[in-house]
């Protein structure tokens, strides 16, 4: 304005300055809401700011944290992926994305993201520790599925037992392992055991189609047609 004063430019500059003040006020409110653990309010405020400041990596990381606290992991992943692109060498974002995928039971995507972290820093302790865990689990699941394709159902059951021992703390892996054990027992004509394991899965996930189909096959083996 000093170099080229005119009414139009002054109006535009004043509008932008007012908007800037407003965004700073919203930012202070968002941080305050986050610190008070009012994550819904923080998300709402951050939505307003990010509608204008689209390329702010820190704000996206903060909103991702709020989404995680609110139990909306897929939205957190979206913000963290943007933050990973916006900020150079953002190992923390890749680590968090990998952790979320792992907690959701998507071991393959988790492995892919943690590898991105290690490409940036091969000595990253958290990423390396997670990488070892996910790689081991991934290998066991791949091996079990290979046994199933070959019709080696006993070997597959043993391998899925190992999966449950490798990851006892994330329930989704135990449920998926039991679902596949139920399938193997049914295919192996071990009807009584199949019905027992399939029922365990269906108590956790009543609409699990695979477990329903495999339990039905086991009931047929036992001539339990009504069931």
From TrEMBL:
TPR repeat intervals: 91-124
Swiss-Prot/TrEMBL keywords: Disulfide bond, Repeat, TPR repeat
GO terms classed as biological process: protein folding in endoplasmic reticulum
The keyword Disulfide bond belongs to this UniProt entry's keyword annotation: yes
Source taxon at top rank: Eukaryota
A Pfam family assignment: TPR_16
GO cellular component terms, semicolon-separated: endoplasmic reticulum
GO molecular function, one term: misfolded protein binding
The protein, known as: DNJC3 protein
Native source species: Ceuthmochares aereus
